[in-house]
Write a structure and sequence with these properties.
The chain is mainly beta. It is 0% helix and 57% strand.
């Protein structure tokens, strides 16, 4: 699930996810304040986290969000990249 946007490759895995853990990997994440938002399909914000990582891979744990099975939109944004991708929770 690698997406190339604005010459930046961002990988989000596993997709689908069963335990609510997602990994986001990209060189664009290194030393950048990155905001991750998760929306349901009606556009309601379900989860938001901002972080500054020294690594190219970050882990997001959504298990405490009590998400229902289904499709969600994840938005990842910083000064180097902006991407929205579909994520399936099983």
């Amino acid at each position: 699930n690698a997406i190339k946007q604005n010459s930046t490759v961002i990988s989000i895995y596993p997709n689908p996810t069963k335990d609510g853990k997602l990994f986001i990997q990209s060189d664009a994440l290194i030393n950048e304040l990155t905001t991750i938002k998760l929306y349901n399909l009606t556009g309601s914000l379900i989860f938001e986290q901002s972080l500054n990582s020294a690594k190219s891979r970050i882990e997001i744990n959504l298990s405490s969000a009590n998400l229902s099975k289904g499709l969600y939109l994840i938005n990842i944004q910083n000064n180097k990249s902006f991407i929205t991708k579909k994520i399936l929770f099983e």
